[in-house]
Amino acid sequence: MKISYISTTIIFLRSISVTSAFTTTFQDYRRTSSSSVLYESTHEICVLGGGFGGLNTALTLSSLPFPEEKKPTITLVDNKERFVFLPLLYELCVGDASLDEVAPTFESLLDGTGIKFEQASVAGIDADQQNIYLENKEKLKYDSLVVATGASVNLEFIKGAEKYALPFYTLDDCLELKKRLTFLDALIATSTSKEELNVVIVGGGYSGVELALNMKERLGSYENLNVTIVHRGNEILEYATDFNRNTGVRRLEDNGVKTLTGVSVVEVLELESESQNDFSELKGRCKIVVENGSSKEQDILNADLLLWTAGSMSTNVQKGILNSKLPRDASGRLVTDSYLKVKDYDNIFALGDCARVKKVPFGATAAVAMQQAPCAAWNVYSQVMLNDEDIKEGEKENLQPIPFSYLNLGEMMTLGGDDATISSMGVVEVNGIAASVLRRIIYAVRMPTLQQGLTAAISSSSKRFESVLSSSSKKSGGKSKKIITWK
Ligand SMILES: Cc1cc2nc3c(=O)[nH]c(=O)nc-3n(C[C@H](O)[C@H](O)[C@H](O)COP(=O)(O)OP(=O)(O)OC[C@H]3O[C@@H](n4cnc5c(N)ncnc54)[C@H](O)[C@@H]3O)c2cc1C
Question: Cys-Cys with 46: which of 59, 142, 196, 379 at CB 3.0–4.6 Å?
C-alpha cells in the first residue's frame, strides 16, 4: 500500500518536473512540426559525461521529435560504468542505500532509449575537425557536442594531501570509505585500550557537514570518537539558507562535532611511530598542520581518518580534456552564453559543474545541472532543425533556442540517520524524520528515469516509514522536535 502510494506520487511529480519554458516550446513545436521532411545523412550528437547534466541532456534529446527519417545518432561517453546520484553517496557509504539505487549502470538506464553508450575516458576535443579523442579507443566524430564532464576534488595544492586524504566525491571514494569503515569496525571490536579515534573532515560546506554527521551516526557507538571539521571560511555552511545553516550547526553541536573555522590545512604529514595504537593498521593515518587565517598560528591535529570535501575543480583542466581553443575561466570551466553554447563555437554546448554560463557562476549543484539539461537538449535540437534546409519558414518560429534561467527550488541536506533539513523557496522549512522521508522521495523523483525513480522509492521507503511510525510513538530524543513549518 505504502509503496504503491509512493510510486503514484513519483509518477505524478515526475510528470510536472520539466521547466515550463521548455515544455511550452516543445509542445508548440509538436503541434506544427511536419513529418514529411526528408533527410540525407545522420547527424551525430556526442554528449561527454553521464552525470546529472549529460545523462539528462541525452535522455531529453532522445525524446525530442526529430523526424523519423533523420533521427540523429546520440552517443553518451562516460569513463565509468555507472551513473552516480552523488547526493545519496552518504547513505551508500553508511549502508542506508543500495548500490543500484544510488549508482545504476548506464546500460540499464539507457535500455530502450536508442542512445549509444561508450565507456571511455575523453582525452581531448579537436573542435576544428569535430573529433573526440578517447583513451585507448577510436576517436569519435561529432556534428553537435555537449560537454558535461563535471568537477572533481583537487588535492595537488596541499603537500601530503594526495598521499593521506581520502576525497569524498566519486563512487570509488565512497566505496573505499565504506571498506575502511568495515575494517575499522573490526579494529573497534577488538580494541582493549579504547584510545581516541580521530576523524577529520576538511571543508565545512554541505558535503563536509553531511559527511561529519553521517560519520558520527555510523561510528557513534565508539565512546572515544572525535569528529572535527576544518573549514577555511569564517562560518560553517556559509552558502546555505538560514534555516538549513541553523539546523546543521545545531546538529553538529548536539552530536559533539568540533568545528574549526577560519582555519586552513597547510600540510599533511606521516604520524610518528610513537602514535601506534589499536588503529595503527588503518590506511592513511596522519597528522595535519593547520593554520589560523588571522593569527597565522599553527596547530597539529592527529587523524585516523582524513576525509576531504573542499576545493572541487572543473575536470576540463584537471583530467586534461585538452583543447586550448575552447574558452575557459580561471577555474577551467567552459565559458558559454545564456543558451549554454560555448563562446565562438556554434555546435558545442556545455552545462553543469564544468560550465560557466554567466559572470557570477551558478552554484555547482545537481539542481542547476538538471535544469540546464532540457535547455541544452532543446538548443541542440533547435540548431539541428534550423540548419536543415527542408524546414519551412513557418516552422522556424517554434524552433528558436531558449536561454537558460534557473529556478531555485530550495536545498536539502542529510544530517545522518533519519534526520535531514529542507528549505524551499522561503515557504517550506522541514527538519527531522519528515525531512528525511521527503528528501528520499524528492530524490526518487529526480532519478534520471521513471524505472530508476521507482527502484529508489521502493528501496528507501519501507525502512523510513517504519522509522516515522516508530518515532511517532517515542519522544524524539536529541533530534528536532519541530517537524514541519509552513511559512
Ligand atoms: C558527495 C556529494 C554530495 C552532493 N550533494 C548534492 C546535493 O545534495 N544537492 C545538489 O544539488 N548537489 C549536490 N552535489 C553536487 C552535484 O552532485 C553536482 O553539482 C552535479 O553532479 C553536477 O552535475 P554534472 O553533470 O555537471 O557533473 P557530474 O554529475 O559530476 O557528472 C560528470 C560525469 O562526467 C564523467 N567524466 C568526467 N571526466 C570524464 C572524462 N575525462 N571522460 C569521460 N567521462 C568523464 C564522470 O564520470 C561523471 O559521470 C553533491 C556532490 C557530491 C560530490
Answer: 142
